[in-house]
Design a protein that fits this description.
mainly alpha; A middle domain of Talin 1; 2 domains; 18 helices; 66% helix; binds protoporphyrin IX containing FE; heme A synthase activity
C-alpha cells in the first residue's frame, strides 16, 4: 500500500472517529450514563470485577450505543501468573477498558476507537508482531553465535529462493569461498557445514521478510476497516519504516564483514558499530510495538484508589530512570557481542587477575576504547549490569512498603527476579566462553527484562482525569 493511500485512509478514519465521538457525546447525556454515574465508573469497575461482560460485535458507526452496555474486553489477561492467589485476580483484571465507555473521558486518547472487538483484534496483531520481533532477535543471536551471519554474500530487498539443486549449492559455496571468513577461518569447510550456516542466515532473513508481510497485511486491512486512528496509524507507519530500515541495516552490517580485514592477523567480523545499530534498532522496534500493543488494550492503567495512583506516581520516579539504565546496559551488551568481548576475560568478578585491566585506555582517541577496546567494552558492561541490578534492587526495596496496586508490586518483584537471573546468565555465559545456548538465553533474558520494564512503566502511567475524579481515596474490598 502506498504512502499516499495510507494517508488518505488515515484521513478518512479521522473523519469517522470524529463522527463516532460526536455520537458518543450525544449518548453520554442519555439515561445510560446517568445510570452508570450512580454506580461505579465502568472503566473503574473493570479492575474490580472479574465477571465482566464479553466483547461485543458492534458495527463501527453504532459505537455510541456501545457506551450503554459498558462492555469490557479482556485483552490483556494473566500476563504474569503470580503464585499469590489474590494478586492473580488483579493481574487478570488488568484487561482493557471498553473503548467506547472510555471514549468521552477527559484526557484519555484511545488508539483504537472502533469498539472493543477492533481493539482486541488490533491488540492481538500487535502483540503477535512484538513476539515475532522477539523471536527475530533470538534467531539473529543464534545466527551470530553459530558464526553463520556471513555465509550469504549478496542481498536482495525482496529475498530470493534458496539453492535448490546441487549445482546451485556449489555456486553459492564458490561465492562464499571468495569471502575473507572462508579464507581465514573456514578454509577446508565441507559443503554440509556450509549448508548449515547458509540455512541459519537464510532463515533469519526470511523470517524478517515474513514479519514484514505479517505486519503489513493486517495493517492495511485494519486501515480499510477504519480501526486505526491517525495517531496509531502514524506510530505504526514509523515502526514499519524502522522495520524496513532494519533489513537495510542488517545488510550494511553483513557487508562490513565481507570486506578484507585491515591486517592479515585480524579475524573477519562485522563492524561492532553496525552490529550494535542492528541490535539496538531491533530492541527499539520491539519496545515500540510492545508499548503500542499495551496502549491499545490497556488505555487506562489499573487504578482503584487515589492512594494507589499516588503510590504509582512514586514508583514512576524510579522506574523510568531504571528502565533507561536497562536499555543502556542492553546496548552496551550489543557492543560486547559486536567486539567478541565475551572472550576477552573469562573470569569473574576479576578480569584476569585484576579488577580493572591495564589496557582500558590504550586506544587513541580515548572515546574509541568504549566502543572498540574489548577490555573496556567488557568492563563497561559489567559496571552497567551491576548498576542495573543494584538499581532494580533499590526500586524493589524502596517501594516495598508503598501503598500500591498489587499488580504493580508483583511486576516489581518479577523485574527483580529477572534482573538477578539475567546477571547469573551473563556470568555463566562469560565463564563458559560464550556457548550458543547460554549466549542466546542471555540475549533473550535482556529482552525479557526490557519487556518487564516496559510493562511496569506502562502500568504506572497517570490515569485520565475523569478516571481520577471517579476514584475513591482508598481502595475497597482489597482482599475479596
Ligand atoms: C542486567 C544485566 C544485563 C543485561 C541487560 C545484559 C544485556 C546484554 C545484551 C543485550 C547482550 C548482547 C546479546 C547478544 O547480542 O548476544 C549482552 C551480551 C553479553 N553479556 Fe550481558 N547483560 C547483563 C549482564 C551481564 C553480566 C553481569 C555479564 C557478565 C559479567 C554479562 C556478559 C555478557 C557477555 C559475555 C555478552 C556477550 C555474549 C555474546 O557474545 O553473545 N552480561 N548482554
Amino acid at each position: 500500500m502506498s504512502g499516499g493511500r495510507i494517508i488518505s485512509l488515515l484521513r478518512r478514519n479521522k473523519a469517522l472517529n470524529h463522527i463516532s465521538q460526536s455520537s458518543l457525546k450525544r449518548s453520554s447525556s442519555s439515561r445510560v450514563l446517568n445510570d452508570e454515574a450512580s454506580s461505579l465508573n465502568p472503566c473503574y469497575r473493570l479492575f474490580s470485577s472479574s465477571s465482566s461482560s464479553k466483547a461485543q460485535l458492534v458495527p463501527f458507526r453504532s459505537i455510541g450505543s456501545l457506551t450503554a452496555r459498558s462492555s469490557i474486553i479482556s485483552g490483556f489477561r494473566s500476563f504474569v501468573h503470580n503464585q499469590k492467589g489474590f494478586y492473580t485476580k488483579y493481574l487478570r483484571n488488568m484487561s482493557t477498558t471498553a473503548s467506547a465507555c472510555a471514549q468521552d473521558k477527559e484526557g484519555l486518547k484511545l488508539l483504537v476507537t472502533a469498539g472493543p472487538r477492533a481493539q482486541k483484534m488490533v491488540g492481538i496483531w500487535l502483540f503477535t508482531s512484538a513476539a515475532w520481533v522477539f523471536s527475530m532477535v533470538v534467531l539473529g543471536g543464534v545466527t551470530r553465535l553459530t558464526r553463520s551471519g556471513l555465509s550469504m554474500t549478496d542481498w536482495k530487498f525482496t529475498g530470493s529462493l534458496p539453492p535448490l539443486s546441487d549445482e546451485d549449492w556449489l555456486i553459492e559455496f564458490e561465492k562464499y569461498k571468495q569471502s575473507p571468513e572462508y579464507k581465514r577461518i573456514n578454509k577446508g569447510m565441507n559443503i554440509d557445514d556450509f549448508k548449515f550456516i547458509y540455512w541459519m542466515e537464510y532463515a533469519h532473513r526470511m523470517w524478517g521478510r515474513a514479519l514484514g508481510i505479517m505486519f503489513a497485511l493486517p495493517f492495511s486491512y485494519f486501515l480499510r476497516k477504519g480501526y486505526i486512528t491517525p495517531r496509531l496509524g502514524l506510530r505504526l507507519s514509523a515502526l514499519f519504516a524502522l522495520g524496513a530500515g532494519q533489513g537495510l541495516i542488517g545488510w550494511w552490517m553483513v557487508k562490513s564483514g565481507l570486506e578484507e580485514p585491515p591486517s592479515e592477523y585480524a579475524q573477519p567480523r562485522v563492524s561492532p558499530y553496525r552490529l550494535a545499530a542492528h541490535l539496538t534498532s531491533a530492541f527499539a522496534i520491539y519496545c515500540g510495538l510492545f508499548w503500542t500493543a499495551l496502549s491499545v488494550v490497556m488505555p487506562e492503567p489499573p487504578a482503584e484508589s487515589v492512594a494507589w495512583v499516588h503510590g504509582a506516581a512514586k514508583v514512576k520516579r524510579l522506574a523510568l530512570p531504571v528502565g533507561i539504565l536497562v536499555g543502556i546496559t542492553a546496548v552496551s551488551g550489543a557492543f560486547v557481542a559486536g567486539n567478541d568481548a565475551g572472550h576477552a576475560f573469562n573470569t569473574f568478578p576479576k578480569m584476569g587477575d585484576k579488577w580493572i585491566p591495564d589496557d582500558i585506555f590504550s586506544m587513541k582517541p580515548i572515546m574509541r576504547n568504549f566502543f572498540e577496546n574489548t577490555s573496556t567494552v567488557q568492563l563497561d558492561h559489567r559496571i552497567l549490569a551491576t548498576a542495573t541490578l543494584v538499581s532494580i534492587g533499590g526500586l524493589w526495596w524502596s517501594t516495598r512498603k508503598l501503598d500500591i496496586h498489587p499488580a504493580i508490586r508483583s511486576l516489581i518483584g518479577s523485574t527483580m527476579g529477572m534482573a538477578a537471573l539475567q546477571v547469573t546468565l551473563g556470568i555463566s555465559t562469560l565463564l563458559s566462553y560464550v556457548p550458543v545456548s547460554l549466549g542466546t538465553a542471555h540475549q533473550a533474558g535482556a529482552l525479557t527484562l526490557l519487556t518487564l520494564m516496559i510493562l511496569l512503566n506502562h502500568t504506572i502511567r497517570r490515569p485520565s482525569l475523569s478516571l481520577l475524579k471517579s476514584l475513591p481515596s482508598v481502595a475497597k474490598n482489597l482482599m475479596v
